[in-house]
Amino acid sequence: MFRICIILLHLDRKIIAIKTTYSEEELIVLLKEKSEDGFHYLYDHYSGALYGIVFRIVQSKEYAEEVIQDVFVKIWNSIHQYDASKGRFYTWMINIARNTAIDYLKSKGFQNELKNQSLPDFVYNTTELSTTNNSSDYIGFNNVLENLEVDKQELIDLAYYQGYTQHEISEKLKIPLGTVKTKMRNALMKLKDLLKDYQ
Asked: CB neighbours of 181 closer than 8 A, spacing ≥ 6?
């Protein structure tokens, strides 16, 4: 039922008028109560930013639309697993979106489809289709990333947007794995400090 709702919301791009503004805590309570209003509010306020994250990983509008449906189903079904003491709700959803997109790319079905597809059908204009701009980025995440040093931005981009493992980053950038781990840890600590201003 909710997958159908997601498809209709996403494809029609309809904005459902909900007069109430919910705090993050109130939204979480609504989702745990399986409130339909809570679900609509969640989708309307977070789909743009999460879609942008998914798109940067799968690099395809068609695949991103498929993955984003799974992302919202997972958020809906696993909301009781969210623990506020371990991080912000938005960060938790980012991790779900990222992991779902990476799992999709690694799936046998996707790999088989990719083998049978011609290159022009798979390559898209990322500038035209990407929604990772400030209007759809719920907390201006791109602006936050710009406050990091260039090398830290690159690590975050490779790991969280393009789905590279630390080992793959080490090979790609030709730097020791230990250096990647240290730089990544420092980047995430700096990012955590920067995000404190976005409550």
From this structure: 166
Residue 138, amino acid: Y
Amino acid at 125: N
pTM of the model: 0.54
Task: Tell me the per-residue pLDDT of 114-147, one tens digit each, with 9 for 90 and over.
Answer: 454 443 343 333 333 333 443 434 445 666 677 7
Give the tens place of pLDDT for each residue, 153-194. 888 877 776 667 778 888 888 988 888 888 888 887 887 777
Angle between helices 24-32 and 36-58 (to 10 degrees): 100
Say how far apart CA 63 and CA 54 lie, in whole Å: 9
Report how far apart the first and last C-alpha atoms of the chain are (Å, whole number): 32
**DSSP output for 58-99:** H--HHHHHHHHHHHHHHHHHHGGG--GGGS-HHHHHHHHHHH
